[in-house]
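Re: export button greyed out
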Amino acid sequence: MSVKHTDDAVMNHLIAALPEDEFIRIKPTLEPVSLTLGEVIYESGQQLNNIYFPTTAIISLLYIMENGSTAEIGMSGNDGLVGIALYMGGSTTPSRAVVQSAGNAFRMPSSALHDEFSLGGVFQKILLRYTQSLMTQISQTAVCNRLHSVEQQLCRWLLINHDLLQTNKLIMTHDLIANMLGVRREGVSIAAGHLQQLGLIKYVRGTITMMNRDALERAACECYRVVKDEYDRLLGKYISKNR
Amino acid sequence: MSVKHTDDAVMNHLIAALPEDEFIRIKPTLEPVSLTLGEVIYESGQQLNNIYFPTTAIISLLYIMENGSTAEIGMSGNDGLVGIALYMGGSTTPSRAVVQSAGNAFRMPSSALHDEFSLGGVFQKILLRYTQSLMTQISQTAVCNRLHSVEQQLCRWLLINHDLLQTNKLIMTHDLIANMLGVRREGVSIAAGHLQQLGLIKYVRGTITMMNRDALERAACECYRVVKDEYDRLLGKYISKNR
DNA sequence: CATCATCCGTGCGCTTGCGCACACATAAAC
DNA sequence: GTTTATGTGTGCGCAAGCGCACGGATGATG
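Workaround output, generated via the alternate export path:
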């Protein structure tokens, strides 16, 4: 069903899912960019000018409170895009988009996005479906924050990363994870220590290696699977070859 | 700017914001329905057939976990609609929509919705903008669940209700609120008791009366205002007369 | 090789919220 | 008017997570 494009833009699943004609049309508007760790793609409330389709990079959507504490509401990698507000009409959101794992992405200017979106084709369909899948992710984060332990959430967070990464190794300190999860660094250290003791992960100074994915899934809360299944339900028929 | 329609469908702000021609076109497809307290509009994962535009009713979006505990991710009243998944492409969501405050709504069948949505007019714009505003609400709920106290969240929750209601009186037990907030009934009782002591609210057996809205806003976390401001930013220009 | 910054382990007191249990009040039902 | 159901107050003990503090370890820098 899905067409093989002649470009590594295919690494982004949403782009890869486009029919040949739509792909050819938007291809010239896609500019490859390299994103560095910690780079801020969008600042909260700031007018957006481009939408990003990550290929190897992972971008984190963060809320920053008045007192400076932070919490992640969602993550996008080659399964999605960053910059939903551009086609939803708001042009901006109250969240910040930060590069959590350095890598590449394709950048598409706002004008090209609007042109293609307004045609009402598969491009629009896929973008809207992805938006719904992101809503599920955010919703699940909300209930997860309320009802589950730090350790369960850490497992979930590691699994999401694992899905978006090409490797088992994750460059990430406990401190950064704490900022994402909205908890203390010590809390992450304790949870990670426990997971290491169980043999699910290993880590040394800023590098976490996932040793046993299945066990991690069992140690995570149901939230991980709900979001994953919902993504597959919404976009699976477009992204047939994936996974 | 906004046209005065000849119908009480105007009580729903999104419908009221439509230009005359679009309103006339969708009007015959709107069926007034009465919604009773506790009624389940949509069940999690169940195929949707209608979208709802509340006028006096308030609908709560709930997640139900495997162990039966619940948490609210958002609320819609005459400021919005229920059934986003219908035009986003998913046809369903993992959440349940429950009537939290009895009242009326307009029901629009899926087919009519798709017809009008695909025209790419103001209707589509407004629906997408509302979706973004709901995403903000859900996102803020996520960080609020992580970072703020039960009392702060209770204030926020009361304020949202107050905005959607036509009165200061809220028919709601501590137990139900606890289900919404995803906390214990006792926790709500303690927080509510404190707010009553401060003179912000009064309550007796299932009825809560808001006494001092300004003070409630000061006692709430920033989350309330962020969501409200974002809604106004996204939809304010359409809903000029509102507030 | 020595210094320094960064990352992680650990301990302690404290607060918030949980789970449970039960008493008491007020409305509804008969 | 008595019974019954429902809604709220209160009091435990307990666990999770917070804020703070400090010490040790590891890797980068010069």
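Chain B is about 45% helix and 20% strand. The button fix ships in the next patch.
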